[in-house]
């Protein structure tokens, strides 16, 4: 039997790993790391390596690198994602077959918590289901960027008696702005918060949360929109990549 650990590594800093995650690291024989193309993406691998060095030193485990398949970007988004997932599943199967021996444990360090907008869990679950009992996996939960965002801004995630929506920039680009009252928005590559100008909304934004380059901004969208657009563009140009998240919250009479 081979085993995979899907370890939630938090938003990037070693300080955000849980004790369960640290203990899991110490059991792993092989860590799998996927390289992504693009300027600045090497820094994402360096963060993972920093975590390993911080808790394990440089011996007692192997690191296996592989090139992550890139998702095509055509008009058929659903098909692009399906093809991309098929390629990643095949890559995972090859890594397990080639790099793990019976009785060994392999691991992926996944940003935040593995259950939140990361399809690795689904792909590994499918791989396990078709392994004829030769592969098992365990999920080690992690601290999410949502928790770090609200902690940094010193706000609760939801208000009394109100629900909270967790969604993507792709949804926010097309939804009816009047339907959003409290929403955490992830994977927003097009700054879709601009659509909420004039909607009596506040935004609580964070980039590179938990990292040395962390940037925060909050305020009424009508007032901070231009500054936020400028900062997003500036930091992305400087580093070559940007991981950010924000909370949209409609103002109530008491908050105005």
From TrEMBL:
<keyword id="KW-0949">S-adenosyl-L-methionine</keyword>
<dbReference type="Pfam" id="PF00590">
    <property type="entry name" value="TP_methylase"/>
</dbReference>
<dbReference type="InterPro" id="IPR012797">
    <property type="entry name" value="CobF"/>
</dbReference>
<dbReference type="GO" id="GO:0043819">
    <property type="term" value="F:precorrin-6A synthase (deacetylating) activity"/>
</dbReference>
<keyword id="KW-0808">Transferase</keyword>
<dbReference type="GO" id="GO:0032259">
    <property type="term" value="P:methylation"/>
</dbReference>
<protein>
    <submittedName>
        <fullName>Precorrin-6A synthase (Deacetylating)</fullName>
    </submittedName>
</protein>
<dbReference type="InterPro" id="IPR014777">
    <property type="entry name" value="4pyrrole_Mease_sub1"/>
</dbReference>
<keyword id="KW-0169">Cobalamin biosynthesis</keyword>
<comment type="pathway">
    <text>Cofactor biosynthesis; adenosylcobalamin biosynthesis.</text>
</comment>
<dbReference type="GO" id="GO:0009236">
    <property type="term" value="P:cobalamin biosynthetic process"/>
</dbReference>
<dbReference type="InterPro" id="IPR000878">
    <property type="entry name" value="4pyrrol_Mease"/>
</dbReference>
<dbReference type="InterPro" id="IPR035996">
    <property type="entry name" value="4pyrrol_Methylase_sf"/>
</dbReference>
<keyword id="KW-0489">Methyltransferase</keyword>
<dbReference type="InterPro" id="IPR014776">
    <property type="entry name" value="4pyrrole_Mease_sub2"/>
</dbReference>
<feature type="domain" description="Tetrapyrrole methylase">
    <location>
        <begin position="3"/>
        <end position="222"/>
    </location>
</feature>
């Amino acid at each position: 039997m081979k085993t995979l650990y899907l370890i939630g590594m938090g938003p990037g800093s070693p300080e955000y790993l849980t004790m369960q995650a640290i203990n899991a690291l110490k059991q792993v024989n092989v860590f799998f790391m996927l390289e992504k193309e693009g300027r600045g993406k090497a820094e994402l691998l360096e963060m993972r390596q920093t975590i390993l060095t911080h808790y394990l030193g440089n011996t007692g485990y192997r690191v296996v690198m592989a090139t992550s398949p890139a998702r095509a970007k055509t008009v058929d988004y659903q098909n692009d994602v399906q093809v991309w997932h098929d390629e990643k599943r095949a890559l995972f199967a090859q890594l397990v077959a080639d790099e793990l021996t019976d009785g060994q444990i392999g691991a992926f360090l996944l940003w935040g918590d593995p259950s939140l907008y990361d399809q690795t869990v689904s792909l590994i679950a499918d791989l396990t289901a078709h392994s004829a009992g030769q592969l098992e996996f365990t999920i080690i939960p992690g601290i999410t960027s949502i928790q770090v965002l609200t902690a940094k801004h010193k706000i609760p995630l939801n208000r009394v008696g109100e629900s909270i929506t967790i969604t993507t920039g792709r949804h926010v680009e097309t939804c009816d702005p009047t339907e959003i009252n409290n929403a955490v928005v992830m994977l927003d590559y097009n700054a879709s918060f601009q659509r909420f100008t004039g909607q009596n909304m506040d935004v609580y934004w964070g980039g590179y949360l938990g990292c040395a380059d962390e940037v925060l901004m909050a305020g009424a969208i009508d007032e901070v929109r231009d500054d936020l657009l400028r900062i997003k563009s500036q930091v992305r140009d400087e580093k070559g990549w940007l991981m950010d998240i924000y909370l949209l919250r409609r103002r109530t009479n008491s908050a105005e």
